[in-house]
Amino acid sequence: MFASLRILALTLLFPLGHASLPLVINTWPFRNATAAAWSALNSGGSVLDAVERGCARCEVEQCDGTVGYGGSPDESGETTLDALIMNGDTMEVGAVADLRRIKNAIGVARAVMELTDHTMLVGESASVFAENMGFTAEDLTTDKSMNIFSQWLKGDCQPNYRKNVIPDPSKSCGPYKARTAVNQNKRVTHLNTRSHDTIGQFKIQPDITWDSPIVGAGAYADSSAGAAAATGDGDVMMRFLPSYLAVELMRAGADPSEACRTAISRIKRHYSDFFGAIICANTTGHYGAACNKVSGLPQFHFMVSNSESVTPLLKSVDCF
After folding, report:
1. CA-CA distances (angstroms) from residue 232 to 56, 266, 298, 316?
2. What is the extent of the structural domain holding 160?
3. What is the value of pTM for the model shown?
4. pLDDT in tens, 220-257
5. Within a domain: residue 12?
6. Active site residues
7. Angle formed by the axes of helices 31-42 and 47-61, to 10°?
8. Do 127 and 238 share a structural domain?
C-alpha cells in the first residue's frame, strides 16, 4: 500500500460578482491547509499558487498522519507520494505517482505541468525529474513509518490488499501464492477510514482547486462547469471516474450536492461497502459533498473558506 498524496489543483475562470466567490474547499478537516491557501490567494498569489501552498502545508504537517512523508510504507518499507494539479481553464495537467525521495510532491506535479509536455511522471522517472529541477532529495521515512513496517514484518501480515491468496483469502497476509481456483464472486473488505492518504482541495477565485493523480478519478475541473475531488478507496473509485462524472452532471444542470450524491451512488451499485467521499463546486461558488455510509464513517468532514467567511469553516455531510 502506498502512502499517496493525491492532490489536484484546478483553476476555473469565472466572472466576478458572485457572493460566494472566491471559494476554497478541501476534503477532511485540514484547517491549516485551507487557511494557507486562502492566505496565498488574498495576498495576490495566483490560484495555482494558493493550491500549491495549501497542499504543501499538509505535506509538511503530515495531515492525519497519512498525507506526505512518513505515511504508510509500501511492501519494501518505503514511503512514496502521489500528487496532481490541473488547470480547469486550459485543461493542463501535471501529476506524479510513486514519487520517491521528494517531500514536495505537489510542487513536482506543478513542475510537470509547466515544464514538460507530459501529463504524468511515475516512479524513478518522476524522482529524477524532480532532482533535475532542483527539488531536494531526502528520506521520506520516519520512526513512525518504520515502526509500522516492522510490525508488519513481525506479524507476517502487510496490508497490501492482495486477494485470492493462500492460506486465507480473508486476510491480506502472506504467503502470497495465488490460488489455482478462486471464488470470483467473493469480495473481502479491508476498511480503514484513516487510509485515505489524501487531501483534496480546490478554489474558485473566481477559480477552483482539487486532489488525486488520476484525472477524472480523484479530481477533475472544467471552467465551464465546475470541479470535483474524491477521497477514500482509490483502487475502487478510479474504476468509475467519479470526479469527471460529477462535473459533467453539474454541466447538465445538477446542483453540487446532487452531483456528488449521484457519483457516489454509481459506485455503490457495485461496491456497497466501499470507503469514499466526494466534494463538488460549480461556477457560481455553490458546493456540496457526499459519502458512502460504512462503519466508522457516519459523516464526512471538509473545510470551506469563501467571501462570506474568510475563517475556515468545518462542514459535514451525513453519509448515505
Report:
1. 20, 15, 14, 16
2. 143-178
3. 0.83
4. 989 899 999 999 988 899 999 999 999 999 999 999 99
5. no
6. 198
7. 150
8. yes
